[in-house]
Design goal:
Number of strands: 13
CATH architecture: 3-Layer(aba) Sandwich
Shape: globular
Strand order of the largest sheet: 9-7-8-6-2-10-11-1-12
Helix content: 25-40%
Bound molecules: S-adenosylmethionine
Number of helices: 8
Largest sheet: 9 strands, mixed
Radius of gyration: 20 Å
CATH topology: Rossmann fold
Structural class: alpha/beta
Number of domains: 1
Length: 304
């Protein structure tokens, strides 16, 4: 697999591999990846699923819709992956060790996790990368879904950012799209027009269940989050890898921004979603895939 991936990445703009990420990591050369973003299963103890549904016209249907016709909803099936681990940290550790090995000396790891596991993962990552190489904890705050009244509703994820070396890591703040000031009147027209650099707290909506961007894969991450990460932490033309790729948002953002990508996922459903999502891209190779591109998300319900 090493030769295949290396050859593909020399010529191709992107590569999707359907396989266990540990097997792929073991074959990658030392220092060959510029940026790793990963969003592993969060150890929720459940199967993560999205229901795929379609609304069809049926005069005996249960609701009234367009032009007063009756409609009913047909369940098309579910897309998902298992998020149950006997020992989550034992699962992660060998993979994190490999992430460190395959990163270039200027490279960064963005490790996306939730508040229930973030502190355990931070201790593990400190041991592997070194505490000094911990660069940031980015808080991605969103505002969607039901709100419990039994505690503060949890509406954020944590992204732990590590660099391989504190001396010469790549970080281009100028390449990051700027955001509006909260009080533009206080900073003057020139600054207000330019906007400000985001801090380590990122307000960004989730992928809208009814929006263009959705793929039908559970826990799909927004392109806006990935664009920011790729712009700041991967040089143009260099290689971004995601070893828990899911719907392939990381590859989509990388391609759009002129970076190469390597996407790995062991779930054939993820591979099928990526095959569909990348169908119009030039020079993308698919390795170890039996799956056909899937037919798209239809209408979605459920998710994390
Ligand atoms: C939270 S999802 C990733 C979602 C992704 N960030 C997106 O935007 O669509 C986690 C993914 O990790 C994959 N996965 C879990 N264990 C894996 C393994 N050992 N090797 C490769 N992929 C794995 C699952 O199939 C799932 O697609």
């Amino acid at each position: 697999m090493e030769a295949l991936i290396t050859d593909l990445l020399k010529g191709a703009r992107g590569c999707v591999v359907q396989a266990d990420n540990l097997a792929v990591l073991a074959e990658l050369p030392d220092g060959s990846v510029d940026l790793i973003y990963v969003d592993p299963p969060f150890n929720t103890g459940k199967r993560q699923t999205l229901q795929r549904m379609r609304t069809v016209r049926d005069e005996n249907g249960d609701r009234t819709g367009y032009q007063g016709h009756r409609y009913r909803t047909v369940r098309l099936g579910t897309t998902g992956y298992l998020d149950v681990f006997d020992n989550y940290l034992d699962f992660l550790e060998p993979r994190l060790v490999q992430f460190h090995r395959v990163l270039r000396t200027t490279g960064s790891l963005y490790f996306h996790i939730d508040y229930r596991e973030a502190h355990y993962c931070k201790v593990l990552l400190d041991a592997i990368f070194g505490r000094a190489c911990f660069l940031n904890e980015v808080i991605w705050a969103y505002d969607y879904g039901a709100r419990t009244t039994k505690k503060w509703p949890a509406k954020h994820d944590n992204i732990l950012v590590y660099v391989k070396s504190t001396d010469d890591y790549y970080f281009d703040a100028d390449a990051v799209e700027r955001i509006p000031y909260m009080a533009p009147g206080l900073v003057g027209p020139e600054k207000a027009a330019r906007g400000k650099l985001p801090t380590d707290t990122w307000w960004h909506t989730i992928v809208s269940p009814g929006g263009e961007e959705r793929t039908g894969y559970p826990n799909q991450k927004p392109l806006g989050i990935l664009r920011r990460i790729v712009s700041a932490s991967c040089p143009p033309g260099a290689l971004v890898a995601d070893f828990f790729a899911g719907s392939g948002s990381t590859g989509a953002a990388s391609y759009e921004l002129g970076r190469k990508f390597l996407m790995v996922d062991n779930n054939p459903e993820a591979a099928a979603v990526m095959a569909r999502r990348y169908a119009a891209y030039a020079e993308v190779a698919f390795v170890g895939m039996g799956a056909e591109p899937d037919n798209g998300p239809e209408r979605l319900a459920g998710g994390r």
